[in-house]
Amino acid sequence: MEWDSVIRVVLSMPPHRDLALAKLSVPRPQASGFRRRWLAEPRGQRADWERVMPDGRSIHVREYRDFYLVHWDVASPSRSAVKHLVYDAPHWLVIAVAAGLTALGALMGPGAKVSALGSLMAFGRVLLSYRRPQAVEALVTPLMTTG
Description:
Elements: H1 3-11, E1 18-22, E2 35-36, E3 47-52, E4 58-63, E5 67-73, H2 81-87, H3 90-108, H4 110-129, E6 136-137
Parallel strand pairs: 1-6
Antiparallel strand pairs: 1-5, 2-3, 3-4, 4-5
Helix pairs in contact: 2-3, 3-4
């Protein structure tokens, strides 16, 4: 199987929905135009790869020991960090806003610190209630495991 076929399948799915692939079923990502993505959320993967599409969407490959998880992002973090934060990683945007409000409150004095703490707690609740869909589509090829 070639990566172009995988990309067609992934782009037909909703954003952020992972497709699992056995590593032996496709060539290595770097041999097919993917570049290493250095800024990625740690989820136990060995590496992250990215291929930016002409329309700005990004195919994101998480590499694990025996398989890949592949999905598409609305925006590539290498092309538009803000758009990526808003559409693909809003939980990190919430953290950044909370940190900014806390810093602002610290600069404004004791009374503002209390309101900044309240803002931080509110954003924390939003963050804790946020659950990104983690569904994984049916395997294109069975995962191969070594025993």
